[in-house]
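batch job 7 of whatever, protein = Endonuclease
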Amino acid sequence: MELTLVSYNIHSGIGTDGRFDLGRVGEVLREVGADIVALQEVGDFRARTSREDQPEHLADMLGMHMAFGPNVVRNGRRYGNAILTRLPILHSKNYDLSVGRREPRGALRCDLDLGGGQQLHVFSLHLGLRVSERRRQEALLLGSDILRDAVRKDPAVVCGDFNYWGNGAVPSLVRQAIHDAALELGTPARTYPTRWPVLRLDRIYVDAGVRPLSIHPHRTERSRIASDHLPLVLRFAAPIAEVASSPSPPVELIG
């Protein structure tokens, strides 16, 4: 079976025009029509926007299952990563990737039910701005309690905003036998900034159980304005029997 996944840093719903419009983000995601949506910078702990329920609101707009991993909670306002999906969520967990006094960061993992006893592990993450910070976070991510032991025999996708300014692969991840889908397919897949994308800050990595078919930034007039990042869309095939369905998508909160 073929599925579509999108990784998207939504910048708290604040567009390049400086206007907060979460409905505009939802419309971009409707344009993509993905089965799995991995989001970063969801919510707003600085109180710059009018909504405190950004992940729930997006899930309701799209009619999808949702898990949310807040990395910052301040005065009741949350900020972190989210995964929305048409597939049932069997389990989810938020991992702390924070380093020192830098902005708290994390990786949200969802185990999705693909049917026939098959699972797909999806990680949505957002790494730090400094090189030394990212190296420490990569080491945490690759630790036995996060990536290696978590995925076991099931296929896995690791995606998000890596804040890695080079257009090549992240060496530490490649050494762990997961592959940069854009490099594997020979596609630039540059997503930042939206008006003139020259950097591959957003990445999608897959392991041997996932076969990438195509990858591209989703470029429309709306997506150029809705956030400072373009959505990165992957079409892939996984060794699955059939997709299970659920009549009413639950909302799962973490933390």
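notes: The helical segments are 22-32, 54-62, 131-141, 144-151, 171-174, 181-185, 223-226.
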